[in-house]
Amino acid sequence: MKKDIEVLRQKLKNLREERAKITLEKGLAARDNTDLRENALYETLEQKEHLYTSLIINTLKEIHRLSKN
Is 80 exceeded by the pLDDT of residue 46? Predict the structure, then answer.
């Protein structure tokens, strides 16, 4: 079980790093085109950011569940 938790912690680290990259890219996209209604790249990156946030939350929940056992 400890091995499973370590695998999940590594996954969590990777997800957080990827989300940080996406957040930076989203900021750059916003800077390059300030009319966010017309900025498809910004919208796509925002959706990816939300996806990664959901994956992070689910991974944290799984770590917590396994830690209780």
Answer: yes
